[in-house]
Specification:
heterodimer; A: alpha/beta; Aconitase, domain 4; 8 strands; 16% strand; globular; B: Aconitase, domain 3; Aconitase, domain 3; 3 domains; 5-stranded parallel sheet; 4-stranded parallel sheet; 16 helices; iron (chain B); 3-isopropylmalate dehydratase activity (chain B); leucine biosynthesis (chain B)
Amino acid sequence: MAYDKFTILTSTAVPLPLENVDTDQIIPARFLKATKREGFGDNLFRDWRYNNDNSPKENFVLNNPIYSGKILVGGKNFGSGSSREHAAWAVYDYGFRCVVSSFFADIFRNNCLNVGVLPVQVSAEFSEQIFNAIYDDPNTEIEVNLPNQTITIKSTGAQESFEINSYKKENMLNGFDDIDYLQNIKGDIETFANGLLL
Amino acid sequence: MSKTLFDKVWDSHVVRKIEGGPDVFFIDRHFIHEVTSPVAFLGLKSRGLKVLYPERTFATADHNTPTINQHLPVEDPLSANQLKALEDNSNEYGISHWGLGHQKNGIVHVVGPENGITFPGATIVCGDSHTSTHGAFGAIAFGIGTSEVEMVLSTQCIMQPKPKKMRINVNGQLGKGVTPKDVALYIISQLSTSGATGYFVEYAGDVFENMTMEGRMTVCNLSIEMGARGGMIAPDETTFAYLKDKPLSPKGAEWDKAVAHWKTLKTEAGATFDKELTFKASDIEPMITYGTNPGMGMGISKHIPNAADLDGGVATYKKSLDYMGYNENDAMIGKKIDYVFLGSCTNGRIEDFRAFASIVKGKKKADNVTAWLVPGSHEVEALIKEEGILDILNEAGFVLRQPGCSACLAMNDDKVPAGKYAVSTSNRNFEGRQGPGSRTLLASPLVAAAAAVTGVVTDPRDLL
């Protein structure tokens, strides 16, 4: 999918300090019936965000006007469970461009990278510092610098570097996806396939 | 250097290595279903791409299909639209399609092995995290996102960094009433839902060697619930016997050639793993979950742990128990049950129905329980009838539904109502997984059967 290039993102952030947030919470299965990828943001965290009568649940962070921004900061083991890419689409469609956590589930992390959402894994200590900074001042800004692979809490100056493989980094910086790459090596793929037993 | 089973299969499927990046990884078999494929086909169309090897992709409808009256048009227009999209896309691109009503229709991870699409040493993906099921045959099988479905359709490859390797050994004799599901839930309870993230698991030891293919599939299916991308078991005579003469298995000289190769798919002595864990079969009892992730499981006779005994995460833990309506230190035995679900890609195979029937035979379904018994495929359904299991179920007051994913993820009408408790043989007890507000207790078919006839959580060993 074509998506916006990602270079340096400076934004306030939304805190969600729960652990093991699974993709069924990010986008419940009953909302997976679309045949297009747009519109999932309305149902992001649907059952935590809305009551049965569709009224907003006041105590959920996305319904608290104090918190906003393009960065979602989650607890440990974020995105576990189902492989539904709809979870990453919902995060993107809602307006987030970056998810920060001290630990990501594999498939969710991969899906994010494929749709233009940058997953930034930080240490548990740094994660704690971010939550504290946001709770101290919801207007505090976080800078995510992909070229330098750093994340900075602007108010305190605290900084940590994060990992991303150089191939995926290039893709994110340029808004490329894997299909562009794979299409270019089709000859190699066909040669490989011809040598297979089954 | 000595290689593991995983190394052998992975390394033989790398088309190209990218410096500082992922491997270009060739996929032998690709399964698609109605929910995670439509957007991938949209992507193909917008780029003007073809499906490179349509004969390597197999479509089946399962996630949102109804489990009663499958001969009638699907009522929910959104589900019907997705089913139609799968059919149209399959037809347009020349992909084999087992839609609703087709004799071979069923849950993707049940019909794949049943038809011999799955084979040892294969690389298999599907836009579904429980694709790990196929690892039971010594395949590298894992779930992918829709962008990757599009990659496989257009190039038969995805781009993946090679995961780390973990071996999990379980040795000894399993006790009475302890099933493959209990072995898996026990391992997950020990590792947590993120304990194997970043790893690919090989299961080894005599407990797995002695398991049937159905049991191995249940174990590998649940690999994702401890965070692993997948899990695999070395193929052996049990594997070959299962696959022989399956409709799409190789035949004649091709079969012999394939088996000769499959016999080489073993971890060599001296091969190393990044992590190795060993458990004792005798430590495992029938398991049940009490919380809102599959790692929150325990032996059925035990009490719910106290938050104070946990290593952090207290707020999340308390939120979870609150959702379930349970308290720290509660016993699970005797907890009231409203629903029982037997089915899913985890426990929707013939062996699971045999186990369920072994408990309910000669008893009656409890009045307070609604039971949904959903076979994983028409083939399982046919065997249930053939083996006389249906009669046992009917006499005990149960009815059999038609194949599909059903209440495992409740995309169709099989939804557990808010606040109600379900003992479920499926794979996830997340909040709302079986319907908004539903509360799920994951367990084996034996535990599900014991709950179905008593109306409360019951130790199946008391009924065997």
